[in-house]
Request: fold
Amino acid sequence: MTTAPDAPHGTAPAAHGAGPDDAPPHGAQPGPAEPDPAQPDPAQPLAGLRVLVPRAPERAGALIGALRRAGAEPVAAPLVVIGPPEDPAALDGALARLAAGRYDWLSVTSGFTVDALDASAARAGRTLADVVRAGRAARPGSTRVAAVGDATAAALRGSGVDVDFVPSGEQSARGMLAEWPEPVSGARPAGRGTALLPQGDLAEPTLADGLTGLGLRPEVVVSYRNSPAPPLPAALVADLASGVVDAVVLTSGSTARRLADQVTLPASTLVCCIGPRTAEVAAEVGLPAGLVADGPHPRAVVAAFVRRLAPAPPSPPPAPRLPAPPAPPSADPR
Reply:
């Protein structure tokens, strides 16, 4: 075995970096291992994912915050503009009847409607909570409040309104109909109940038709108008078309239609729809097949993206091959 010559007395050998077997100085502890840049950060599972959020930033703060905390890069750009109804007097009249206990149910299917109801109550010098309490006092058992999902229920509670019914399964008009409660004591008999349905001007008749089928008499009133927003910036359209923007959140069927009117998304774009009906509209207008969030709230959107982007579990190792059994002894020829 050849050995390297000793260094001159008092001179340290030239440093070439510690080898794998070099131990740290006596008493020293090795430092923490450097993170592997090739491995995703579990605290930010959506790191680097650029996501179009089709709302104005002031209306999408919770969703933008949830995406950023997960490591994504949200890009907010509205596709629709929400405005007051052309005839606010119709909504104001309906709210006056609600305060008089004329309706068994108030059914709310959007946070935009909560805003509109708040504004209508304020025009009468009241709050929405005042209106609901007055209706319940005028006719006990009336003025029950239904919300399409957790986010709408939270908006109602933020306005001081107790919510009586939120579907536990699908949070949509269809989900509401599937779980609609039975009448309570003090309410009109089944088949004669009334329901106030304040909705956007583009709302589909699913809920009104379904409640009619359940024996109620719905009164639909427009609570807000849904109009197209100005076209998306040209640079953003180019980024969407080229796949530089990796993902899109669709909050309604109208956002799906207006996105499809402006850009053709590549098949690689991840499209997350809030609700199964939005997913159906997205498919109808030719957007890439995508994900459906479990609920209409930011954490469900983030969870849907995380599930899709999670690495596939490793395949189990093949079963070991067992040795062949020994051959039976041959028969004695004698």
Q: What stands out?
A: The chain has two domains: 50-79+229-309, 83-226. The domain at 83-226 is CATH 3.40.50.10090 (Rossmann fold). Residues 1-33 have pLDDT under 50 and may be disordered. The beta strands are 50-53, 73-76, 80-83, 105-108, 144-147, 194-200, 217-228, 247-250, 270-273, 291-292.
